[in-house]
């Protein structure tokens, strides 16, 4: 080989300033991999706070104040390598495939560590009280149902400890055998000399994390003054590989000619790209599990003496259905059973309805076959801050695509979470509202209403209608007609079960007040109409929330 040929450059030849610039544009996983390949890089950059501060900032951690409650010397390196590298991707919102009702789970950094006494990441389930009814003034003939912001119920703590906690192998054995085997420590130092005999001491594993599952007494929302229930475990989070689990509803025995109806897929196809965000999943080993199939129990159901109108059951997805993407599952504590049920109800809530779960109809056969609980899947959903209001001298300055995002809407005295998305077909632009939470009639994963932006109405010709919908026009506290856009739309209704032959469509009058607020009038077949309000989800203001026994009660007023 010619000695004059250029030799491959090593990382040690790259100036530190250039490496900092490179690291700022690659993932934390890649940075850790690079540092693991070279002793020089580990020696030079392992404890360089410049790198770890930037990586922590990606998860919203710009200060260590909330992480120094128990350890005043904690560094960005420790916070990232022990907590954020593995579990930071969880931060944000997750939506559940829980049949009919769905569920919303939020992970966030505990910024109030001095008030709660621990540091790390908290998982909280969203719960809504009833939607508020604004009776308006005497000039308004109708009642307007407005949405409310949710309360936030703590369900999981991923706690960063002050010093490594030694986990005995027997603790791991007590956990569900499907739990992931993770390596919390990214960088470990090998001690010199011989290790103690494995027979003289129990096998231990070093961990800086403690997982705590939090359950709440029933009924949810009425337990003020009662303590929460906490269970610690080595881990209670599972990363699922893509699966083909589906849900079905039937109104009679299949062998008698009663067809089954496929429950809406979740996530729905139009929102599937959200769930394929690779950087939103925890860095733990994924696991696969076969879909549940309870079709064999259908013949054991006592259809003639049944007290239900429709039966819900699990089965593998049909060939035409999509393969659902990766997801996470929170695993309830294995015992006692009462605590498991409380935790499961928090993660997979169900409302009273005429729909029966096949597991309750064939309970003996189900328990005899093992009776394992179904653990639902949570998928990542995006959320961004509401757009800034337009300048005061630019009336109605928005485009239909500006409406996309998370909205909360009122539906017959209840609030649901929607994701608004635009869809263009044959040159027509349609705004669709997809349900992330739902109910027995119109479940999660279904479109609840839509409108085409070409089917417009004139606000100037419908002033009386606007007044009936509780919209004040003109004056100091009213809306200018030039700022309002109106459309004809359609809303989906159904009886409980949402089977294909039960669904119907109602005409809507859609009033877009601005990019963050709408009103809609639903006109029913008997001529009765109702007005519902919709607002973009405003995000959280922790300083305004009232914490009590693991619940943070919202104080945001959406009126």
TrEMBL record:
It comes from the Eukaryota. It holds the Pfam family F-box-like. SMART domains: FBOX (SM00256). Gene3D superfamilies: 1.20.1280.50. InterPro entries: F-box-like_dom_sf, F-box_dom. Residues 8-55 form the F-box domain. SUPFAM superfamilies: F-box domain. This is F-box domain-containing protein. It comes from Cristinia sonorae. The lineage of its organism: Eukaryota, Fungi, Dikarya, Basidiomycota, Agaricomycotina.
């Amino acid at each position: 080989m010619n000695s004059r040929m250029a030799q491959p450059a090593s990382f040690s030849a790259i100036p530190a300033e250039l490496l900092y610039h490179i690291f700022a544009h690659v993932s934390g996983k890649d940075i850790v991999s690079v540092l693991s390949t070279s002793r020089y890089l580990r020696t030079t950059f392992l404890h360089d706070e410049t790198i770890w501060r930037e990586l922590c900032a990606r998860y919203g951690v710009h200060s260590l104040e909330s992480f120094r409650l128990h350890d005043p010397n904690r560094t960005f390196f420790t916070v990232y390598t022990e907590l954020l590298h593995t579990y930071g991707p969880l931060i944000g919102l997750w939506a559940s495939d829980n049949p009919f009702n769905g569920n919303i789970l939020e992970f966030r950094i505990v910024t109030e560590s001095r008030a709660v006494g621990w540091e790390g990441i908290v998982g909280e389930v969203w719960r809504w009280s009833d939607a508020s009814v604004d009776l308006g003034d005497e000039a308004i003939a109708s009642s307007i149902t407005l949405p409310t912001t949710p309360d936030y119920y703590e369900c999981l703590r991923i706690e960063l400890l002050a010093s490594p906690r030694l986990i005995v192998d027997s603790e791991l054995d007590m956990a569900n055998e499907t739990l992931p085997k993770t390596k919390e420590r990214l960088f470990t130092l090998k001690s010199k000399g011989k290790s103690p005999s494995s027979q003289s001491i129990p096998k231990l594993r070093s961990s800086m994390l403690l997982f705590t599952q939090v359950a709440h007494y029933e009924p949810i929302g009425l337990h003020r003054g009662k303590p929460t229930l906490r269970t610690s475990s080595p881990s209670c989070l599972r990363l699922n590989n893509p699966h083909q689990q589906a849900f079905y509803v039937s109104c009679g025995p299949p062998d008698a000619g009663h067809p089954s109806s496929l429950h809406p897929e979740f996530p729905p196809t139009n929102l599937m790209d959200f769930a394929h965000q690779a950087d939103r999943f925890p860095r733990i080993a994924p696991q696969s599990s076969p879909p549940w199939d309870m079709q064999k129990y259908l013949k054991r159901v006592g259809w003639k003496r049944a007290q239900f109108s429709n039966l819900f059951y699990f089965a593998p997805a049909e060939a035409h259905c999509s393969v659902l993407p990766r997801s996470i599952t929170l695993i309830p504590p294995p015992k006692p059973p009462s605590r498991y049920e409380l935790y499961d109800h928090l993660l997979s809530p169900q409302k009273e309805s005429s729909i029966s779960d096949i597991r309750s109809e064939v309970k003996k056969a189900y328990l005899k076959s093992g009776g394992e609980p179904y653990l639902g899947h949570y998928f990542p959903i995006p959320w961004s801050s509401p757009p800034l209001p337009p300048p005061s001298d630019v009336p109605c300055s928005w485009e239909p695509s500006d409406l996309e995002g998370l909205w909360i809407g009122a539906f017959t005295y209840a609030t649901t979470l929607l994701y608004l998305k635009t869809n263009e077909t044959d040159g027509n632009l349609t705004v669709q509202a997809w349900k992330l939470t739902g109910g027995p009639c119109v479940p999660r994963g279904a479109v609840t209403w839509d409108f085409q932006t070409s089917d417009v109405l004139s606000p100037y010709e419908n002033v009386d209608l606007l007044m009936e919908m509780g919209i004040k026009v003109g004056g100091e506290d009213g809306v200018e007609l030039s700022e309002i856009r109106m459309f004809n739309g359609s809303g989906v209704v159904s009886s409980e079960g949402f089977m294909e032959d039960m669904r119907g469509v109602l005409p809507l009058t859609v009033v877009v007040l601005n990019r963050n607020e709408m009103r809609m009038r639903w006109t029913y077949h008997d001529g009765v109409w109702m007005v519902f309000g919709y607002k973009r989800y405003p995000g959280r203001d922790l300083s305004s929330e009232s914490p009590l026994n693991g619940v943070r009660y919202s104080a945001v007023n959406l009126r």
